[in-house]
Design brief:
Elements lengths: L1 E6 L7 H16 L3 E6 L13 H4 L10 H11 L2 E7 L7 H8 L5 E8 L2 E6 L6 E7 L6 H17 L4 E6 L3 H5 L4
Length: 180
Amino acid sequence: MKYLILNGNPTMGKGSFNSCLESLSDQMTAAGHRAEVITLRDMKIAPCTGCFKCWTKTPGKCIIRDDADRIAEKYMDADMVILASPLVLGYFSALMKNTIDRSIPLMHPHLEEVHEEIHHKKRYETYPSLGIIIEKEEDTDPEDLEIAENLFRRMALNMRTDLKFITEIDKAVEEVLTWN
């Protein structure tokens, strides 16, 4: 199985977060899987401008040339993508949100009904499964986690994939390796 772990930790100072993801990657590799961690703060990813040229001028490709292209290729080549980020105001870090926004070329511009809602059609026949690893904020309460989980589930639906798990960073290695 091919895993892609996107590390949305904006600070280098959170060593335990980063080391946990590296440990997870190492254990996946030891179990015979391919795993790659991409640290988003080390990448050049410009914000989406909302021009929609990825749908009209260069279908499936963003016109902005930066590391988002490479991430999109690796995303579509993976069997599972794990989005890992500390919660910031109850959601992913800005690094992760920016990366998710830049994934819009992976969807088709036309719409269809999905579960009695309107969503973009799939551009590709299959998409990788999705997993979420978060680190709670100091004041995160159960209601905050419920709201965040609902947002993550909605995001997975919009990205036309299955959300396999949502877990916290301190439980990640044990839970992620047993999900399938």
